[in-house]
Amino acid sequence: MNIQSEIKKIENVQLGKPNRIFTMYLNTDRADPEQQGGEWRIHLKNGLRNFESYLQEDGDSDEKRNYWAVKEKVEKYISEIEQDLAKSVVIFATGDDSIWFAEKFQMPVTTLFEWDDTANLDQLKEMHQTFPKSGIILTQKEAVKVLDTELGTLKDSHTFELDLETEDWRQYSGPPPSQANTGSGGKITQTDQFKERFEANRYRWYKDLANTLDRFAKGLNWENIYIVGDKDEANDLKNNMNKPITKVVNKNMLDHEERKIIKEVVLN
To answer: Domains of the chain by range and CATH?
Structure first.
């Protein structure tokens, strides 16, 4: 999902009674002192119930039906993700399904519920401005991982591994293969011979990969690029890429869990 295009699409929708737009920003951040006991459940229940009470008094049966349709979808979505919550949930929805945006994010929000003619996009816009489409490039000798992120959330990942026989970079989508490939030679062992060869050729090999990474950055519309890895390796990539680099982090984090990488590199 492209968040920027979703914002533009929702922004252009203006409705009215009886088919209004539901907006929900729900703080589910377990690190928040006010969320230690799962208070988000109470906020969700109260937020949904308040509109129900208002619509009962208003007496518009068509609007009530539209709201109940939204409420049912929201409750179903929350029940599906409840065991894997992040720091927030953002939902925009209509009863006729013309709008349905539901995402969890690694950034906290201020809890808010609205039922109105337009969606309240303020917090989502602010989040996107702070954490736009970004790429994290992690280096660790013959392996390089690329994380495509937006709003602090992983969208996709790719792994490049160097085939030492052909000296070509092989690309894999998603999780990397269980072991690095050296053509017909099998598993790489980190011998002194390999280390010497790698150090002697590192700049050239990383220069070859830098062109591919520049194409990634352009095709995925990255506004920020982070390079993470050994100082010399990270600098080689940075110096060979045409795209400007936002930040270099000198840590070996390629094998770390992706959510932790994003939190440390982008969100901190």
So the answer is: 3-129 (3.30.960.10), 132-267 (3.30.420.60)
